[in-house]
Amino acid sequence: MSSNPKGRTTMEVGADGVAIITLINPPVNSLSLDVLQSFKRSYDQALQRDDVKAIVVTGAKGKFSGGFDITAFGGFQGGKIPAPKPGFISVEILTDTLEAARKPSVAAIDGLALGGGLEVAMACHARISTSNAQLGLPELQLGVIPGFGGTQRLPRLVGLSKSLEMMLTSKPVKGEEAHNLGLVDAIVSPGELIHTARRWALDILEGKRPWVPSLYKTDKIEPLGEAREILKFVRAQARKQAPNLEHPLVCIDVVELGIASGPHAGLWKEAEAFQGLLRSDTCKSLVHIFFAQRGTSRVPGITDQGLVPRQIKKVAILGGGLMGSGIATALILSNYPVVLKEVNEKFLQGGLDRVRANLQSRVKKGKMTREKLEKTLSLLKGALDYESFRDVDMVIEAVIENVSLKQQIFADLEKYCPPHCILASNTSTIDLNLIGEKTKSQDRIIGAHFFSPAHVMPLLEIVRTEKTSPQVIVDLLDVGKKIKKTPVVVGNCTGFAVNRMFFPYTQAALLLVERGADVYQIDRAITKFGMPMGPFRLCDLVGFGVAIATGSQYVQNFPERTYKSMLIPLMQEDKRAGESTRKGFYVYNGKRKANPDPEIKKYIQKAREISGVNVDPKMMKLSDKDIVEMLFLPVVNEACRVFAEGIAVKAADLDIAAVMGMGYPPYRGGIMFWADSLGSKYIYSRLEEWSKTYGGFFKPCAYLAERAAKGAPLSSPMEQTKSRL
Ligand SMILES: C[C@H](O)CC(=O)SCCNC(=O)CCNC(=O)[C@H](O)C(C)(C)COP(=O)(O)OP(=O)(O)OC[C@H]1O[C@@H](n2cnc3c(N)ncnc32)[C@H](O)[C@@H]1OP(=O)(O)O
After folding, report:
1. Are residues 513 and 452 in the same domain?
2. From the Swiss-Prot or TrEMBL record, what is one GO molecular function term (predicted)?
3. Quick one: which of 127, 572, 607, 654 has the most CB atoms within 10 Å?
4. Residue of the CA atom closest to atom 54 of ligand 1
5. Does residue 297 lie in a domain region?
6. Whether residue 371 lies in the annotated active site
7. Strands (DSSP E) found in 375-485
8. ipTM of the complex
9. Last residue of a domain, one of 264, 285, 306
């Protein structure tokens, strides 16, 4: 039954008669089955021993608990580990043993009490916390609901609306807020935590403090009619925000059942629903994303070499446009002093103003105070020459995508920056070897590809060439972590991983439209699948100028699999260049609302004539499933090439790149994970069939063909990686 043998609890009984039970399972004291069984043994012992009057539950090394052991989810799903029988933990251990005990218990919370961790704490009769502790029920981010009584106790402790908000957003609250909400009873410093908790437990015993079984609290719950109104509203919101997800609705149902039929009925319903959801595709996908995201910073041959990241004390950014100012914002927000260089006063001021505006929008949203804004901005200095580059540790170039300009800049940087300085480029498509061609510093040249807006989007694509030194990669990984980005380390090629994988996406959409599919049906089908927007709405947002410039990189580099449609250039000639011109595939009103435009038919007709293709009646009645597959299977095909060429080291890195760089729905597990749910044979046969009808654009690559022939998953590790890394 053991999922993690290092997990255990200890029990120490003090002279005051208080037993301290400590959860131990590094790094976050997760509740593996070993920990839970040991917890039950310790608890039973504490209840039996005459010298124990009261109990304090806490976690080792300043962390209460990060919740149920997520590494065991896979074992339960695959049937390798038998899941505990429903209700064993939530009813038998936490309710009937802990909460119903004749001895009072207090949770002493430092660091974090998340998921099952908070559920254990809520079953205690009081909670003492430090102000920095994070308390929450983030189970929904993993595709399940709280399963140790959280759906019943949290509403009774903090009220219905707040509890639903905490569960549905998966966002934790800090100690102080938890105190204000009534989730914890007192806030103390870490040094006083255990002492206060043990005193509190004795006070409960002596009747000086209330003995509260939270499962039976009623004062925070609205009367049934009012509660039902709140639940109805929240249910409608959940349906609207996540129409493809079932588990938020299950969570709301379970909360409702507890209010209508009593907390015990709620507990049993919760246990049953938890077990069901644990086996759902959504849960499998989200758990995969959880671990894949944490795995991106482990790069074989680089991060396992014992290299220590060097300290980056000052960063320079070249170019104060949208990207440069966004990158500067991300850096100063994490306390890096930054020099922003532009070519003239006007552009420089524009860049500095953009950074200020980025910070101001945080102030407006209540995420930052005015005072903090000024303090943060004081880390940013403007420059028009390279004088202040003499002591920088890292430069990030973010100028327009022009090869000769970038070559000149890198030659200048080599002259002015110190010899240890990392020379990074934010290019999204250009080969880094070309950029560094005029320097002798290839070992410190690296790609730092941010996604727009750079201070908001979570992904950082770190691009290494054959010559980039491992130390420089380790340094940039560290900066990425400090500025709270998820880094994905990839090899050097046109478009790197994210843009290259996704270039067939728009192309497939154009191919379909020229053959008779409807622009708006495509966008609707793709949005329904879970993308934030369809490919045509995305083109409008990015702007046709950018779409044409990046498209031409692929035409040059991968001519055999590029679909050359003139639709976008034709529209651009007519000054329809996307949202910025208020007209693209859609027309836009002043409030950025996109409306379909029948006018686009004439451009489609013209593009069709240039391509020399005819309308295919089949394309006019594609199902949503067909559309999704015809757009995403070419993406899978390109992702396979990227993987086979060793541009990505792990298929899971491509999943994270798709989710964080393109907004691919995480509950589908990322592009390769989703592909494996369809199967390599199926994907190969679909692409092969389309390539016969519609041409080489759909031709399955050799890797896909080989995997399909073996019936093997696409994401299994490469046998012989032709690594470019
Ligand atoms: C029945 C119950 O209701 C069901 C549950 O409790 S489900 C679990 C609910 N809990 C959660 O969702 C919390 C998930 N964890 C997190 O959000 C974050 O890891 C955290 C806030 C706890 C810590 O964040 P941070 O300090 O940035 O460290 P992070 O890198 O994420 O995690 C550190 C390590 O702990 C592991 N870890 C974190 N939470 C874990 C958990 N609940 N189970 C197993 N491992 C866990 C991570 O995988 C990572 O392992 P690695 O070092 O091998 O990559």
Report:
1. no
2. delta(3)-delta(2)-enoyl-CoA isomerase activity
3. 654
4. 294
5. no
6. no
7. 380-383, 394-397, 422-425, 445-450, 459-464
8. 0.99
9. 285
724 domain residue, yes or no? no
Give residue 286 CA to ligand 1 midpoint distance, Å. Answer: 13
Ligand 1: nearest atom to the Cα of 117:
6
SS3 of residue 502 by DSSP: helix
Query: Is 119 known to be catalytic?
Result: yes
610-657 pLDDT, tens digit each: 999 999 999 999 999 999 999 999 999 999 999 999 999 999 999 999
Distance in angstroms (rounded) separating the CA atoms of residues 409 and 397: 8
What token pair was written down for 124?
């205690």
Calculate how far, in angstroms, residue 426's C-alpha sits from the geometric centre of ligand 1: 31
Average pLDDT over the chain, rounded to an integer: 95
Looking at the fold, whether 476 and 597 belong to one and the same domain comes out as no
User: Is the distance from the beta carbon of residue 142 to the nearest atom of ligand 1 less than 6 Å?
Assistant: yes
| Closest-CA residue to 13 (of 64, 70, 51) | 51
Q: Which of 314, 282, 302, 312 shows the shortest CA–CA distance to 144?
A: 282
Could you tell me the CATH number of the domain that includes residue 663?
1.10.1040.50
In ligand 1, the atom with minimum distance to the C-alpha of 141 is 12
At 28, which CATH number?
3.90.226.10
* Reported confidence tier of residue 5, pLDDT bands at 50, 70, 90: low
Q: Is the CB of 30 under 6 A from ligand 1?
A: yes
Mutate to test the pocket of ligand 1, among 24, 61, 68, 70 (most ligand atoms within 8 A of CB): 70
Nearest CA to ligand 1 atom 1: 147
The residue ranges of DSSP E strands in 254-379, in sequence order, are 315-318, 338-341
> Which of 492, 513, 531 represents a domain boundary (last residue)?
492
Total structural domains within the chain: 3
> Model confidence over 261-290: pLDDT tens digits?
999 999 999 999 999 999 999 999 999 999
- Ligand 1 pocket mutation, candidates 114, 152, 304, criterion most atoms within 8 A of CB: 114
- DSSP class of residue 684? H
Domain that holds residue 472: 315-492
| Among 28, 29, 61, 486, residue to substitute to test ligand 1 (most atoms within 8 Å of Cβ) | 28
Residues 599 and 629 in one domain: yes
d(CA 715, CA 719): 11
Within a 13 Å sphere around the CA of 395, how many CA atoms are in the beta-carbon half?
29
Which pTM value belongs to this model? Answer: 0.94
Residue 48 lies in a domain: yes
Q: Is 82 exposed, middle or buried (0-12, 13-18, 19+ CB in 10 A)?
A: exposed
**Residue 718 is assigned to a structural domain of this protein:** no
CB of 146 closer than 6 A to ligand 1? yes
Write the CA distances from 70 to 74, 115, 216, 310, 397, integer angstroms.
8, 11, 29, 33, 40
Query: Domain check: are 279 and 353 in the same one?
Result: no
Pairing status of strand 105-109 against strand 126-129: parallel
Task: Tell whether 391 and 433 lie within a shared domain.
Answer: yes
In terms of Cα–Cα distance, which of 26, 69, 556 is closest to 290? 69
**119 Cβ closer than 6 Å to some ligand 1 atom:** yes
- The DSSP call for residue 530 is T
Ligand 1 atom 37, closest CA: 28
99, 119, 270, 579: the catalytic one is 119
| Set 12, 92, 99, 139: catalytic member | 139
